[in-house]
Design brief:
The complex is a heterodimer of chains A (168) and B (794). By secondary structure, chain A is of the alpha+beta class. Chain A has five helices and five strands. In chain B, the strands form seven sheets. Chain B has a seven-stranded mixed sheet, sandwiched between helices. In chain B, strands 7-15-14-13-8-29 form a six-stranded mixed sheet, with helices on both faces. Chain B has a four-stranded mixed sheet with strand order 18-26-27-28, sandwiched between helices. Chains A and B meet through helix 1, helix 2, helix 3 and helix 5 of A and helix 1, helix 4 and helix 19 of B.
Chain lengths: 168, 794
């Protein structure tokens, strides 16, 4: 076994607290995937360009491949596994991607879903141009983005309906 | 009546797990695995003088370190070069690399040593401690250097020529010499690559208890990897299971196999008795997977006053990189498919496939067609410019007419079969694309824009794509006693929505609810006979095989039900999973019950099986399983067509070029597409969208920037510019034309690659139209366009 010094940290992910022991250099993306088994977060480039590994850190989209696990110890993390509604049904962004055929191979999808979740919270009714801007930092090699843009707009609609129902 | 699924925009069943983060990609399986890392050559061309791994051996957490010398003692065939997968008589100097380099390296990224450790971090620490001494050799980089052959990639390959291939139909030289007009063109397309968001990956577990190897790999061919692993590791095929889980995009690069890691990982798993995993990182994908596209072309063409082709002679040079594991597939496709929807008159083509000290070249979506389309469409535009004719007029006069189908080109295609188009309606397609893009209104638009000081151009390009090449695919269907329908086909899936499209086909043919059908792809335990997912062949090949297997399953179900219901087979139908007398709902028995009846049991373990025991089923005077029958409600069949079916399409684009900065902006993009009958139009359109985006990338952004020493200068997503949403058209206008293929039962043609093929040709035409000088090399950046302007206006 390795003699690397380990740090015991607490990772709060999707509302659940996990205790893990990791070396200081362990990437947050690797800790999520390999230490916690939350393999929905994908790693496409490991240099912060593709956005596949995007998670929400205290509600803000961040590249988990550019963070160390130890530096996320005090934060509230949300991964793609945490985007479904409390009753287990698909959340608005997930539902919109399915309806609009916003994904093909599914590898980049988790990063888009987290990014858009934060995006429509900030701008609940984006125009098409704003939808494009919202996802302009994520790479997808399959879809050509046409249907992802549609999915952003649809997700905003679904989220508005959902929160409207919740208010009643 | 059950709603027909074929042709319906059915939402994808795979999406639920993907959007929840529950997909299973290779790096997600075997969480207990050790991790492998590979030491790769930092030099493009060098002799290896020595490798010292001593400093690694006592490192904590390291389980194995191998170089070439270690491999043959573990499995003799591992000492031999990797297989040359697709030999060809003209590939006289084919060369492949070793799993780990023996004595020499021929590209930056070639595998030299292999380490297995507790995790990837430690494995990479270990790589840093390996000391390799090299004698540097001069590198051959780029087609010019390969052609000049002042230096050689492989000492024993004269001229760097792996293959020279020639095909002809008629006497092109004589036809050109006798033609009223002639032109010659020199053209070039740069290197690019597939760049799936998930790189390569492989995980393996040796099951000591059962003496079996289980291998997961991110591949486009499970059966190919299985056969290669068995051969190289010296294992019986029956001891090797290959499973292709969810794959994060392929686009061609994952059809090549076996990659060194696909052999080294299972070898290590067996030796160490532990699961082992290799997950390629992005830099590795750039320098150790595969590229495509790099070609230079010289065209001689002869034509009459109307622009009708009389003779076409194409000579081209194809950069195959350092080795030729995938044979000549890409240049053969270029040499045949460049003809597109046109009659070339007499045709002669010759190509050299050339070695360079760069990453290997294997198919990337389109597989040689984007280059061929670029050559033919640039030629059409050059003829139109020379004659002062509308570009669509010159195309129109050269089109193959619908009543000439099937059309024989008198050439041999990539599958060794005759290049014969089965169907298509190219004149209608040309009419449609002109309407869709507004071809005839463009001059008005150009004048309006010019009045505002803006510069615009329009271009179009046509292609024909052989899809669904053989040799075959198969399907196996089982109806369980629950009535659930389990379907297996052997080819793999990397985003095409096979679980949905194939289930649509089964639901229609078998008469079962779509929701009851479950499709498994790429698992050799379920279907050991298969070829792979490439050449836009999955829908055609496996789609047809699944249709045929469903037919057989249905025949068997009707046969069994006819006996049980004491009815005639002809009078029965299957609706919503129930076999009933035609038009008499409520009269029938469910397919689950038929499945029970199909399998006479000795033992009862629940109510359904109790009903199926031999005391309850069948005539006691006859054998429980009738002669010629098999137990189980199953159907299996294979589809093997005589030759490919040919899809086609035309794209048109309107661009604006900034008079000052030479920035290129897409104003409109239009697609007319013919893939025969559509199984799921939503999925087909998604494929077109994605293809167009890759076409934009190939035309305007993506290039492999090698320096003279063979170092790839842009081996990251920061520097290799793939389109984000900001680089693609804001909308794509799509029109479908459906000329069904006569070659398969569903009348379908492939759709996977089509969208990317005409991109460079269409953009070159539009930019040329905007600028007024020839565009002969793609991709083109604003700075290159800026320089071209300076050169032409100097």
């Amino acid at each position: 076994m390795s003699t690397e010094q380990l740090h015991r940290i607490r990772l709060q992910v999707n509302g659940v607290a996990h205790e893990v022991e990791v070396p200081a250099r362990r990437l947050l993306s690797d800790a999520l995937r390999h230490d916690l088994g939350l393999t929905g977060t994908h790693v496409g480039c490991e240099h912060g360009v593709c956005g596949a590994c995007t998670i929400l850190v205290d509600g803000t989209p961040m590249r988990s491949c550019l963070m160390f696990a130890v530096s996320a110890a005090d934060s509230e993390l949300t991964t793609v596994e945490g985007l479904a509604n409390a009753d287990g049904t698909l959340g608005p962004v997930q539902q919109a991607f399915r309806e609009c055929h916003g994904l093909q191979c599914g590898f980049c999808t988790p990063g888009f879903l987290t990014t858009i979740t934060a995006g429509i919270k900030e701008n609940p009714s984006p125009s098409e141009d704003e939808a494009r801007e919202m996802i302009a930092g994520n790479l997808c090699r399959c879809t050509g983005y046409q249907n992802i843009v549609k999915a952003v707009c649809r997700a905003a609609e679904l989220a508005a309906t959902h929160s409207g129902e919740a208010d009643q | 009546m059950t709603t027909r699924m074929m042709g319906a925009k059915v939402a994808r069943v795979e999406d639920d797990r993907f959007v929840r983060g529950h997909g299973r990609y290779v790096d997600d399986v075997a969480p207990d695995a050790l991790h492998a890392a590979v030491l790769r050559s930092p030099h493009a061309h060098a002799r290896i003088r020595s490798i010292d791994v001593d400093a690694v051996l006592d490192l904590d957490g390291v389980h194995a370190v191998w170089t070439y010398e270690d491999l043959a003692p573990l499995a003799p065939a591992m000492g031999e070069p990797l297989p040359l997968l697709i030999p060809h008589p003209t590939l006289t100097h084919g060369r492949t690399q070793y799993a780990l380099a023996k004595d020499e390296v021929n590209y930056v990224g070639e595998a030299i040593a292999f380490v297995v450790a507790d995790d990837r971090y430690l494995a990479e620490d270990a790589l840093d401690r390996i000391v390799v001494e090299y004698d540097l050799l001069p590198a051959v980089v780029g087609i010019d250097a390969a052609r000049a052959a002042e230096r050689l990639v492989h000492e024993d390959v004269p001229g760097n020529v792996a293959a020279r291939m020639e095909q002809a139909n008629g006497d092109a030289a004589a036809a050109i010499a006798a033609a009223p007009h002639t032109l010659s063109l020199d053209l070039e397309i740069e290197r690019s690559a597939c760049m799936p968001l998930e790189g390569r990956g492989v995980a393996a577990r040796w099951d000591t208890d059962n003496g079996r190897l289980q291998l997961w790999t991110s591949t486009q061919t499970s059966t190919g990897v299985r056969a290669a692993v068995a051969a190289k590791l010296g294992l019986d095929l029956m001891r090797v299971d290959v499973i292709t889980p969810d794959v994060g995009g392929g686009f061609g690069v994952k059809i090549n196999h076996p990659w060194p890691e696909e052999l080294l990982v299972p070898l290590a798993a067996r030796l160490l008795g532990r699961a082992v995993k290799f997950t390629e990182d992005r830099r590795e994908h750039f320098i150790s997977s595969a590229h495509e596209r790099g070609q230079q072309h010289h065209v001689e063409v002869g034509f009459d006053d109307e622009g009708r082709l009389l003779g076409l002679d194409v000579r081209f040079w194809h950069d195959n990189g350092a080795y030729t594991p995938y044979g000549l597939i890409v240049p053969i496709i270029t040499s045949t498919q460049l003809l597109g929807p046109y009659k070339p008159g007499a045709y002669h083509v010759q190509f050299d496939s050339l070695y360079t000290n760069t990453v290997i070249v294997t198919p990337y979506r389109g597989a040689g067609r984007p280059q061929g389309c670029f050559v033919m469409e640039r030629t059409m535009d050059a003829i139109a410019a020379y004659l002062g004719k509308d570009r669509t007029e010159v195309r129109s006069i050269n089109l193959i007419q619908p009543d000439e189908m099937p059309y024989e080109h008198g050439l041999t295609f990539q599958d060794g079969r005759e290049l014969t188009y089965d169907s298509g309606d190219f004149p209608t397609m040309l009419t449609k694309i002109k309407e869709l893009v507004g071809w005839d209104e463009f001059e008005t638009f150009r004048a309006e824009m010019a009045a505002q000081g803006r510069r615009v151009g329009i271009g179009l390009a046509a292609y024909v794509e052989g899809t669904g090449v053989g040799p075959y695919e198969g399907a196996h269907i089982t109806v369980e006693t629950s009535g659930k329908v389990k379907v297996a086909t052997g080819l793999t899936t990397q985003g095409q929505g096979h679980q949905t499209a194939f289930a649509q086909i089964v639901a229609d043919e078998l008469g079962v609810p779509f929701e009851d059908v479950e499709i498994t792809t790429g698992d050799t335990r379920r279907m050991p006979y298969a070829v792979g997912t490439f050449a836009s062949r999955a829908a055609v090949m496996s789609g047809s095989a699944i249709h045929l297997a469903a037919k057989k399953t249905k025949e068997k179900a009707l046969r069994i039900a006819a006996e049980a219901l004491e009815a005639d087979v002809e009078d029965l139908e299957i609706v919503d999973g129930v076999v009933q007398v035609k038009g008499s709902p409520g009269s029938g028995i469910g397919l689950g019950t038929v499945a029970v009846l199909s399998n006479p049991l000795r033992y009862a373990f629940d109510e359904a099986s109790k009903a199926a025991t031999q005391f309850n089923v069948g005539d006691p005077t006859k054998p429980p399983v009738a002669a010629g029958e098999e137990p189980g409600l199953e159907g299996k069949d294979f589809y093997s067509p005589p030759r490919s079916t040919f899809a086609s399409g035309m794209h048109a684009v309107i661009v604006e070029t900034d008079p000052l900065t030479a920035e290129i902006t897409i104003l409109k993009y239009a697609v007319v597409h013919d893939c025969g009958h559509l199984i799921n139009p939503m999925i087909v359109e998604g494929q077109i969208h994605g293809g167009v985006a890759q076409g934009v990338g190939g035309a305007l952004y993506e290039r492999m920037a090698y320096d003279e020493a063979g170092q790839l200068q842009n081996a990251s997503f920061m520097d290799f510019l793939m389109p984000y949403v900001t680089e693609v058209p804001t909308s794509i206008d799509i029109d479908h034309l459906e000329t069904p293929s006569p070659l398969n039962p569903l009348g379908i043609k492939g759709a996977g690659e089509a969208g990317v093929i005409p991109g460079s040709a269409a953009f070159a035409a539009a930019i040329e139209d905007a600028e007024g000088f020839p565009i002969t090399a793609m991709p083109i950046s604003p700075s290159q366009l800026f320089d071209l302007r300076a050169a032409h206006h100097a």
